[in-house]
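hi! just following up on the protien thing from before. the input was this:
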Amino acid sequence: MQQEELEEKVTMLEELIQGFIQRITIVETEMPEFLKSFLSQYKETLDRITSRIETANKRYDDKKIQQQMDELKDVVSRVPKVIGVKNHHHFGVWSKSLVIGVVAAFIITAGSFGTALYLNHQNDRLNEEAYNFWLVRAMYPKTAETIITGLKDDPNVFIAKAEKAMEKQQAIAAAKAVADQADKEQKAARDNLKKVRSAK
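and the predicted 3d structure came back as:
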């Protein structure tokens, strides 16, 4: 049975080679004159290969090959089906650059957003101050004129007087808040005292 298979394979190979040789002869007839010498050398090489294949087929020992295949199957059957693999991930140069770029972009975006919020808050405060001065100018034109004149004449002295006046107003407001808180606490203490006396 194996001998028949071998003979069948050899005949198939011979048919393939004969078909190949026929194709080469067709190509030879269609090729220009300067390639014919190359194809003739190639034909000789194919003939040599064919003769070597035939001699190799004659020396073909299928028992030895079957024995090697059985050994290979035995080795494959002994290989474990599950193999544990340690997985280790590390960032490459490109990945590190990407992460650094994303972090830098995030920091720049956050800084820009924070700056925009701060500037928006400052703008709102300046608009409120400008509106307040507009009200002073509308309701007290003489006061507004005095302020404008003072800023034109000697701005540093005028700003220093304004800062002292603001500090004084803030101190008065703080003292008034403390006094109001003390009044509230005193009133709460009196009410608590009244409740205690009335409870007797």
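The two ends are 126 Å apart (CA to CA).
The helical segments are 2-30, 33-58, 62-78, 93-139, 141-153, 155-199.
cheers
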